[in-house]
Amino acid sequence: MGFHSFITQDTDKSISNRYTAQGALPVYMTDNKGNQWHEDDYEGYGGFGDKDFYELLAEMNGMSTRDEGLNLYFSDTPHLQPNLTERKNWEWQDLAIENCPDQGYFYDDEWGPDDPVLVVSSEGKAYKGK
Question: Is the CB of residue 101 less than 8 Å from the CB of residue 5?
């Protein structure tokens, strides 16, 4: 499974993951009941704090599993979605989430997707390897 990421709804920034050279963008996920989860080291698979985005989406729509949430997210069926923001002080709004076209993974100016080796350190930082 590849990375999956989103655009924040308050600042329109891509939610970068921990493996990109710039590091993860700290964000908050908020549901329609006002519950909130903070993530400052996003891995790129939908987990924010101790809550999975797709599982929460399922719960917000009367379902229970991550798979149900994934199917609903990628369907044409109208549904509620969690909000993803940089700001902690955020009141949930019925807004559609925009996907990050780069899946939260970005390259710095010195190397790019055609470079042959990407090394990820034990601390989760990416750098050009040999």
Answer: no
DSSP state string for 7-66: E-TTT--B---TTSTT-PPPEEEE-TTS-EEEESS--SSSEETTEEHHHHHHHHTT---H
Question: What is the total count of domains within the chain?
Answer: 1
What's the pTM value of the predicted model, to 2 decimals? 0.76
Q: 97 exposed, middle or buried (CB, 10 Å; 0-12, 13-18, 19+)? A: middle
Q: What is the pLDDT of residues 61-115, one digit of tens each?
A: 999 999 999 999 999 999 999 999 999 999 999 999 887 765 545 445 444 455 4
Domain residues for 78? 1-130
Instruction: Give every CB contact of residue 42 below 8 A, 6+ residues apart in sequence.
Output: 5, 15, 16, 17, 18, 24, 25, 27, 48, 104
| Tokens read off for 3 | 């990375």
